[in-house]
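Thread: quick sanity check before group meeting

JM: Hey all, I'm pulling together slides for Thursday and realized we never actually wrote out the predicted structure for the chain we discussed last week. Dropping the sequence here so it's in one place. If anyone has concerns about the input, flag it before I start.
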Amino acid sequence: MEKKSRARKLVLGALAFMMTAFTVFTASAAGNNSVRIINIHDKNNVPVQDWELSIYEVARFDASTYSYLITDDFGEYIDIAFINEEKTANEIAEKAAELESVISQKGITAQSTVKSDANGNASFDNLEDGLYIICYSTNSKFDSSPSFIAVPDYDNNSAVTLEAKIEDKSNGGSTHSGGGGNSPHGGGNGNDNDGQEPEPGSVLGDSREKEVPDVEGPEEKIVLGAKRTPKTGDNSRMMLYLSIAGFSASILFAWIIIYVKRNRS
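JM (edit): ok, ran it. Output follows.
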């Protein structure tokens, strides 16, 4: 009876260790995303340093159900359909502007706030899988537009880069585009919200040096939720989880073998 009790305790202890290890490794894997914002420059391409940018989690991606869960702060202002269904760049830009206004009015706390560096870049690290919105602080010299970003992106990249979406107010100014939302083809993010119709067939986040041709046509639609359905052949995360499970199981079996050998001796 005593041996059975000890065996039961050993197995339960090993299982507890396996579950703890799996939880720790999974949390670490899910929180290793990053977003880098580049080209925070003025119209003369001079980097703008110390401009504050803040990131807010709009929806958390649930790997167990392969779906998004809207956070409490934004539940009244955006729904799952908007994230998962195709929307035009203008519709996405309007929703981003709406959420930016909500953030200001409700005083929602940012998940993280950073400042642009000497090169006009800024980074947010340790992000969980999900959909985020990035907002710029008020600046007397520049106008800015918020940007949606989903991590990982459409190509399952955990490190995502997007161009700043700002406009220089001085003498005619210039608009830099980037970050209205993830492109279904893994391109940049965002669109210029200057009243012009977007380039037909383009994705959010065209390079600011690229000229928009004078061509009429329908505006391409985009899906904000990068991981709205499982991707065929997308097993990068699955391999990690299987490795963790295998490692934990091997420790469990090792504990059992050691225990059996000790009792036999």
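AS: nice. Confidence is low (pLDDT under 50) at residues 24-29, 183-216, 228-236. The longest strand covers residues 52-62.
JM: adding both to the slides.
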